[in-house]
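Standup notes
- HV: blocked on the assembly model, inputs below
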Amino acid sequence: MNTKPFEITDEILDKLISTAYGDAGFLDKIYVKKLIRKHENVRLLYEQYSAVANEVHKVKEHEFPYQLTKPLPIRNVNYKEFKNSFWVDLLSIIINRPLISTVTAIVMITAVTVSLINIKQVEYKYTPIEITTADEQVRKALGIVSKIFNETKTTLRNEVLGEKVGTPIRESIGIVNIIFNKGEQK
Amino acid sequence: MKTLKIFLIFFLFYGFQTPAQEKDYSKEPGYFDFSKIMSLKTSDDITEIYLEESMLKILSGISNENDEDLSKAIGGLKLIRVNEFMIDNDQKSKYEFTMQSFDKDLQNQKWERIIKSKSSGTHANVYVKKVTDNKFAGLVVMALDKEGKATLVNIVGNVDLKTIGKLSKEFNLPDIKEKE
């Protein structure tokens, strides 16, 4: 056996590993056996690979655990069901259809402007006769209120202060006078 | 998408319909509903006045040049309603009872009674709705005279009692025209 180390190239190493695992072709096997016999370092390396290959071949097949095939549950994720809302619709139109949204905006602004103009027109759509009549009616309405105020004042002055309060006071003073007069005569 | 279409149709419809609608004054704090008492009337209205804010504003502007007090009195008003009608003698007690019931209603709704007058067949109650100490949001007058003439007045808006008082002499003239 040649003790001088043999230079192991990548090609030889591949053949060595294949032979150790039993996958090498017939000619490769003969070539590798020849090298093993001749060179000590090749023999040691072959023995190491053979030992590993033996261990690998000892490993039996195992059935894949069923639990691992289950779909993974989603945890700690706030899932919200997607619903079509007004705002989603509106935003999607604005983003996806800029032309439609621009036209809609113009129509809306026009509608608001027209309605505001119409309101103003309604407010001031009175004829001079209507205004004159309304002026008379305002005066009359306020006159009715004033009349009730005045009537109450008159009632208070004549009936309450005059008759209900004034008359008894006058009568009382008259009685007192009579008593005084009688006292003086005595 | 459907929601948006409905909204757009509604918006356009509403936008063009709004001017045709009358303003709803029933939400105003100074408004009072007389419809219950109106069912007692046994004749057509002697006087019926219904003046809205837009007209009152015009009148206030016109009056400002000639009659400053009148302009001041109606400037802040939103509505003036007056109904005067006759009541038969047999309905008088019913009217008086309704007045009493309204008196309770009004006071429950935070209206302040400033006049309660009852003298030889004549009744008159005046109420104001206070906003602050010197500011009023409405005025209600309910009256019944000896002849059976019922008077209902509701003034909605910023009522200036001081100015109305000042105008008393001018308005309480005997030649005020009445509806035939």
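- HV (later): unblocked. Residues 133-186 of chain A form one domain. Chain A touches chain B at residues 84-86, 89-90, 93, 104, 107-108, 111-112, 114-115, 118-119, 121-124, 126, 130-131, 134-152, 155, 159 (CB under 8 Å).
- Next: hand off to the docking folks.
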